[in-house]
Amino acid sequence: xxxxxxxxxxxxxxxxxxxxxxxxxxxxxxxxxxxxxxxxxxxxxxxxxxxxxxxxxxxxxxxxxxxxxxxxxxxxxxxxxxxxxxxxxxxxxxxxxxxxxxxxxxxxxxxxxxxxxxxxxxxxxxxxxxxxxxxxxxxxxxxxxxxxxxxxxxxxxxxxxxxxxxxxxxxxxxxxxxxxxxxxxxxxxxxxxxxxxxxxxxxxxxxxxxxxxxxxxxxxxxxxxxxxxxxxxxxxx
Length: 237
Known about the structure:
By secondary structure, the protein is mostly beta strands. The chain has helices at 22-25, 113-116; strands at 4-7, 14-18, 33-39, 47-50, 54-56, 66-70, 75-78, 89-97, 103-111, 125-133, 136-145, 148-153, 159-160, 165-171, 175-180, 183-189, 198-202, 213-222. The longest helix has 4 residues, at 22-25.
């Protein structure tokens, strides 16, 4: 059975893109683009839903609930790269890892390099991943482009599965950082250059491997640097 559904524009059963023109044009403004996964009705982008992700309750502060992914074949594919053109950024998300496979890749922004530059693609992208250690997990933030290739993974900094967490990755013009619940996990200096337009996947890597087992309430993409005290995403608790 083909479990793939294509929805053009709105009418999806649950993803909201906000930020005015930013939701249509990537990072053309300083406004954040917000995707709320418990309410897909107003997504201003082509959306393909694969598998059967289920709407569930989110953390108390998250309006609209969340979307639960089964770790097998549940995924969303979105025809937008919300940080295209951004020279600094903050990516925030509120999610609940529920254990399972060791490697899980659950938010992927991919630049369409072959279309934009005519050159051989190198895999320019952002990724949010996790590594699962029994009933704990560690964040893996990753960014790659022509002048940078950086992983922020610190296996000794672990967090409990089955709970809602706020995660973020930021870049201030010199330093790339990763956070869990507002606490710095690690950082590295990179020579970041803006990524071009592209697409995104949620619940899996864009080539449909390493599916996510858990729920995601919100992702927020701000085309400027934010400090932890400026994070605007819903904080669990």
